[in-house]
Amino acid sequence: MRTRVFALVALALLLMGGGALASHPMFFPLSEHTIAKDITDSGMPLYRTNIFTTDDEQAVSWLLIWRDSKPHTVEWRWYWPEGRTYARSFSTIPPIDGFTGMWAAPVWSCLKIKGTDVARLPGNWKVDVIVDFKKELTEYFTINTPYAC
Question: CA 123, 124, 130, 135 torsion: positive or negative?
Fold first, then answer.
């Protein structure tokens, strides 16, 4: 009888603990992130850096996300050096499509530099990454003129 009660209590604790972990509303499977100068055809970052010049074509905020059973909305907010929002972009991470599907999803947003207003205001920039209406991370980067030390 005591063994049966102990087994039922252990099973109840196991189910409550596992259920709470799996359904936690703040869980988001972010695996890797970086700022880079470009993206390959297969969606991988090229030339990871946080220092750009006004002659660079773009700055790219790149994420690798482990997919789960739900789609996720990603928003990037790019900020001028003085703190105002310069641009916003959006993407969707699709849910995992079975055991044969890709488990990780690369997503990214590009900030054009050369020939834009961005090149006219060098300084310390930042980008916020917001997933499902919750800020997940902020990345900082610098845009210099080509002759800066």
Answer: negative
This prediction has a pTM of: 0.72
Closest CA relative to residue 69, chosen from 95, 88, 44, 93? 95
Task: Record the tokens describing residue 28, joined without a space.
Answer: 């988001």
d(CA 110, CA 139): 13
Please calculate the CA angle 3-22-26 and round it to the nearest 5 degrees.
140
Q: 10-43, pLDDT tens digit by residue?
A: 444 333 443 333 333 444 555 678 899 998 888 8
